[in-house]
Amino acid sequence: MQPGPGPGAGPGPLHLLRGFSADESVTKQQLKPGTIRRIAGYARPYRWDLVIFLVAAALDAVITVAIPVLLGWVIDRGVLPKRVDVVIWVAAIVAGLAIFDAFLNFVQRWDTARVGQGLIYDLRTQVFAHVQRQPIAFFTRAQTGSLVSRLNTDVIGAQEVLTTTLVSTVSSTLQLILVLVTMLYFSWLVTVVALALIPMFIFPARLVGRRLQRLSRESMQLNAMLGSTMTERFNVAGAMLAKLFGEPSEESALFAGQAAKVRDIGVVQAMIGSTLFISLTLLASLSLAVVYGVGGDLAVGGAFQVGTLVSLALLLNRLYGPITALSNVQVNVMTALVSFDRVFEVLDLKPLIEDRPGAVPLVLAARSRQQTQGNGSAGTVPLAAEIVFDHVSFHYPAASEVSLASLESIALPVPERTDVRSGVLHDVSFTAPARKLTALVGPSGAGKTTITHLVSRLYDPDEGTVCIGGFNIRDVTQRSLHDVVGVVTQDAHLFHDTIRANLTYARRGATEEELIEACQAAQIWDLVSVLPDGLDTIVGDRGFRLSGGEKQRVALARLLLKAPAVVVLDEATAHLDSESEAAVQQALKTALTGRTSLVIAHRLSTIREADQILVIDEGRIRERGRHDELLASGGLYADLYRTQFARQEPVGWGLPGGHFPPHPPPGGHGLGPPGMPRPGMPGPGGPGPGGPGPGGPGYGGPGYGGPGYGPPGPGPFSPP
């Protein structure tokens, strides 16, 4: 009776072969037409290195054939006639050829290394530059690990077409031709017998080659997915999320499952490749036995000498060796072509946002630091130019327009990808005056952040125009536009580098004095100056060695160093504590002074100071005006104010219906239902808890105190 698998039993061979599920959307992809021609274009800069390599490979092939011939001469003309001088001379020639062959191998290795590493450099820099040009929508969909895989695994695999594969193909082909010519010269019968066995080498290679190509493509995808998991879990934010919400056992099981698929497909690839190699080696050994039998019979019959038989046997090894190598070359070429195809797949993805032909820099006149590029100018605009949205409508692009299925996840088949374009903005028109603060308020998902993205041209509108200083931002270069527009987001990103490097990222040539001045204006210098390394302090991955408020102030210092004409703040203080918010707000006053400002407002102080408030709802501007005007109108802004901003008011004051006077009345009005103790506001009686009273201040609805405006209750610290 066969014992069943116990708890300690490992996976059997069948499990290894079935441990991964083939993704047909990946494995059934075919190489695109023109791939070979594009590869040849990358080889063109290295043509002289390739010429030298080909010459060295040709000489190496000649030596490879010459040595077996010389060894046959040693037997026939030296050993059998017992001529020592011939033996010595031939041995010396063989030794010299061996030394020269070693030099040729060194030259080939040097050339292939130069070509291979140069090609890796060319592909990596081209892919990196191309990915940098992709819109922000591309990065919201693509997995980081998949992108890194294209720059590492695929690029290295692609260069093998012009290095390892080229060496094997050229050398094997030249050797095969010379060996066949030499064998035909010695004995046509032995050569015909050898050639008759060649189909036995070719058919297995073709059978296996296609299978390995499909496996190679899926293996690359699985490795990319594994890399994405590691990338997401090994950064600070991902590690923190995993520790706070994740289960270690589930995380380990997820990684183990992905690693198991990589392992299993690797086993299948190795087994198929080894099976091919073992089969070809076995066929070569059997063929050698046949040739020794036929050639030995001819030698006994006097058709040729013993030395010739030895030469034929040695040449036979050099015949099937190249055939075996060429069979493997087919597998290697198909694998490398898949890598090239995956690299070209990224390079062929056209960026959604590009400079128009003839786009010119947007040059600012009253700017202390000129950043002119090129020879043209879009005109002269004031330091703080106005922003104009003219009937702008916008839909976020479909997945097929900005991304690739293979860069997102192989877990989702292509048909399941969502290409529905959802409307975000509808006929939006407004003007943000120069040197004024325009606040955007509205419920979550209303389109506020989308408006700020259009200002910095992270996206282009479907209809309408966005202008800065009277110039359509599509007509100016993106580089000059980003010099004009400065953005600070809610989660300020810092590179894993020094504070100095993160600041000078905005302006490369900034002096020490300018860095200090920017830090002082951003209310962060007091902290930086007491750090042991000062500006050279490492901030950690994504700046996690700093607090949220400190990161925001470093980001504001970077903004001030850039000195943009237009400032966009996307919830820059939404999640800060009171102390950090106070410091950031002070820095913001400096950052916004004299500049056109577009701010997504989540703080009462911001909207009160705004010169204009735009109320955004469902992608449309519902209301616009100043704070007091919008409150008095009693519309959507008043409702948002009660639910979103009113809780930021100083406790203890209000008007019936939820409206608020510009300044709180004195006294100790309480927050809470009637008859409950309430904290008092500073007044004539001094701060302190108010006593029981008939009612607290109303916020326009239940849950925020008593209904309406209540007089102060009697208490030891309340006014009489």
Helix content: 40-55%
In total, how many beta strands? 14
Described by the principal axes of the CA atoms, the overall outline is: elongated
Protein structure class = alpha/beta
Number of helical segments with 4 or more residues: 25
Can you put this structure into words, describing what you see?
The chain is of the alpha/beta class. 55% of the residues lie in helices and 9% in strands. It has 25 helices and 14 strands. The chain has helices at 13-18, 24-27, 35-43, 47-79, 84-132, 136-141, 144-159, 164-186, 188-196, 199-234, 236-245, 248-300, 306-347, 399-402, 405-408, 448-455, 478-484, 499-504, 512-521, 525-530, 548-562, 578-592, 604-609, 627-633, 636-645; strands at 363-364, 380-381, 387-395, 423-432, 437-441, 463-468, 471-472, 485-489, 566-570, 596-600, 612-617, 620-625, 678-679, 689-690. The strands form 4 sheets. A 6-stranded mixed β-sheet has the order 8-9-10-5-11-12, with helices on both faces. Strands 4-3-6-7 form a 4-stranded antiparallel β-sheet, covered by helices on one side. A hairpin with a 2-residue loop joins strand 11 (612-617) and strand 12 (620-625). Helix 4 runs antiparallel to helix 13 (306-347) and helix 8 (164-186) runs antiparallel to helix 13. The longest helix is centred in the middle third of the chain and has 53 residues, at 248-300. The model is unreliable at 1-29, 366-382, 410-421 and 650-720 (pLDDT under 50).
